[in-house]
Fold:
Amino acid sequence: MRDLSAYREVALESFDAGGAVRLRPMVGQAYHPWLKVQGPRAMTADHPVGTRFLVHAKLTDRLGGEPYLYVYHGDPIVVLSDAQARKFLAEFRRGRI
Structure:
């Protein structure tokens, strides 16, 4: 059973990384956009590049390696509209003040 307290809501976006579609945290959150993300293949295979998602992710380093965000493959995939993404990021910023 996974520890749900380790997971946080994170807005991700897909991008083209030299021919491969990858995920990254959106700018304006606690995680740098260069941080690697491991998530369900359906997020990159079933949606166009530039799609934004709201996920529950945890920061991990798997056996002491480089840190990355992990998204559990069994969680639902929530696609964000531009307006929803802006609202989520604005709420995140307000919560940090």
In short: The two ends are 34 Å apart (CA to CA).
